[in-house]
Design brief:
Layout (H helix, E strand, L loop, with lengths): L2 E4 L2 E4 L1 E4 L13 H14 L3 E3 L8 H10 L8 E6 L2 H5 L6 H12 L4 E9 L4 H5 L7 H9 L3 E8 L3 H11 L5 E5 L4 H4 L2 H10 L4 E4 L12 H10 L5 H11 L5 E5 L3 H10 L8 H15 L20 H13 L3 H8 L15 H5 L6 H13 L4 H14 L1
Parallel strand pairs: 3-4, 3-10, 4-5, 5-6, 6-7, 7-8, 8-9, 9-10
Antiparallel strand pairs: 1-2
Bound molecules: iron/sulfur cluster (2 copies).
The site of one iron/sulfur cluster has 15 residues, from helix 16 and helix 17.
Length: 394
Amino acid sequence: MLYNDFQGETLSALGFGAMRLPVLDDGSIDQAHLDRMVDAAMAAGVNYFDTAHPYHGGKSEVCLGKSLARYPRESWNLADKFPGHQNVKGVRPVTPEGIFEEQLRRCGVDYFDFYLLHNVNENSLACYYGKPENRFMDYFLEQKAKGRIRHLGFSCHAAPAGLEQFLALYGKDVEFCQIQLNYVDWTLQDAKRKCEILKEAGLPVWVMEPVRGGKLAAFDAETEARLRALRPEESIPAWAFRWLRTLPKPTMILSGMSSLEQMEDNLKTFSEHKPLNEEELALLSEIADRLSRQIPCTGCRYCCAGCPKELDIPMLMSTANDMAVAKSFNLVARYAALEPEKQAGACIGCGQCSRACPQKIDVPEQMRRLDALMASQKSWEEICRERAEAARKA
Ligand code: SF4
Ligand code: SF4
C-alpha cells in the first residue's frame, strides 16, 4: 500500500468510500460482502474509511461501523460528514447536535477521526454562514476541542470562487478539503484551479469521484484497446488513479467501491507507484475532451430525493449520454418500456434537482432535450413496417 503523511499521521493513499456499497436484491447493503471488502482492505493496509449521513439512506454508517468494529479502533480512521446542504434542499431541517450524536450512534464510535461539512457549493454556502442558526462551525469546533472530532474539513462542489468564499470565512478552522478530481474534471470543473487555491491556503487535497461515478472505469472497445496497448497490465480504472498520483498528487484518494473485485483491482493499483509518461497523459487528455461533451452526471442521486415526480434522474441522464455516443434501437426500446410518468416528458421543470446537483447540471433542460430526442425516434412498429416495405419492394 502506498501511504501519505498528514500532520505526522500515516494515511493509506487509497480510502474506502462507502457511498456505493454492494447491495442485495431487496436494495439492502450486503453486509457479508462488505465485511469481505473491509477484510481485504485492512489486510492490504488501507486505514481510511469514509461514509456520510445520506449514503444508502443512513445505512452506510451503520454497516460500515459494524464491519470496522471487528478491528481495533486505533487501526482505522473513520470519516463522516455533516449534511448541512440538506437544509437548502429542503429534505429536512438539520441541527448539528441531533445529526452528530445520531452519526456517532449509527457508526458505533465515540469519536470521528475525520469529520467534514458535506457538499459545500453555491446553493449550500448560505447554510454555513447565512442565518445565525445555520452557522454550524462553532458546534463542530467545540466537538473537536472535546476530542470527538480529531480533524475537521469539508467537501466542496463549488466553483473556484465559491471555494474561495468559504475559505475566507472558515479557512482557519479546517484542515483538509475534499474535491471532485479526475482527468476530466481537471478542466471541466476547474479542479486544477481549486487545487491551486487549496495549496495557497495550505490545505491538503482529498479526492472524491476519481473515476467519475464509473464513467472512467470502462470505455468503448477502441479506446480501451488504445489504453491496453500502452499498459497491457493495467485495468481501465487504474489509469484514473495513476493520473491522480502523477499530476495533482493528493493526500487521499477515495474510491466508492461496490464489490470485492473492484477492491482487489484498486489494491493492486495502489500497491506501487507507476507514474504516467507524456504519451499516456496525452491520451487521457484526448479522452477527457471527448467525455467533456457529455452530461457530467456522476450518478450520485443527490437530486432524486426532492423530485416531486420521483424520476430516476441519473438513469435518464445516462440514457441521454448513451444516445449521444450512439443512437441504438435497444436504448430507445428500453426507454419506451418505461411508464410515461417515469420518462423525461414527465418532468415539470421545477428545478429542485438542479439546486441539489453538485455538478450544476441543468436537469430540466436535459429532460426537455431527451424527451424531444426520444419523441423523434422511430418505434419498433415503424421499423418493422419499413423493413417489410423494403422487403416487398426488393
Ligand atoms: S425539474 Fe424535473 S427532474 Fe428535476 S426535480 Fe423537478 S420534476 Fe424532477
Ligand atoms: S443529475 Fe446531478 S445530482 Fe443527479 S445523479 Fe446526476 S450528478 Fe448527481
